[in-house]
Amino acid sequence: MRFTEFDYVNKGNNPTLSIVGEIQTYNALAEQQDIFLKNEFIKNPVFSNFNLGDNGYILVNFSANIDPNLLSYKKMIESMPLN
Fold first, then answer.
1. What class has domain 2-79?
2. Are 56 and 74 in contact (CB under 8 A)?
3. pLDDT for 59 beyond 90
4. CB 7 within 8 A of CB 18
5. For residue 54, what pLDDT is reported?
6. Where are the domains of the chain?
7. CA dihedral 24, 27, 32, 36 (to 10 degrees)
């Protein structure tokens, strides 16, 4: 997936990601969705507004919430197990 627009907003400890992009095939889009669904830091991933671009690629919007723990180095270190 190639991103053509990327927007990140963090309001009230609720980081949100919005992306506009294009992808070659619906199979590739399904694979990308599977990757996002398996990522523990990406919450509520949604693909929408599917259109066919002039170049034959599928144009798509993507939005998701990001786990705030991903954005905090301190929280990430505190959550790591001690060895």
1. alpha beta
2. no
3. yes
4. yes
5. 92
6. 2-79
7. 150
Buried b (16+ CB within 10 A) or exposed e, 25-42: eeeebeebbeebeeeeeb
Residues 47 and 26: beta-carbon distance below 8 Å:
no
Q: Is the pLDDT score of 75 beyond 80?
A: no
What is the percent of the chain with per-residue pLDDT over 90, rounded to a whole number?
Answer: 70
C-alpha distances (whole Å) from 58 to each of 18, 24, 46, 55, 72 are 17, 6, 15, 9, 34
Side-by-side strand order, sheet with 14-23: 2-11, 14-23, 58-66, 42-52
Higher pLDDT, 27 or 72: 27
Answer yes or no: are the C-beta atoms of 8 and 17 closer than 8 Å.
yes
What pLDDT does 83 receive? 67
The two tokens of residue 51 are: 């259109």
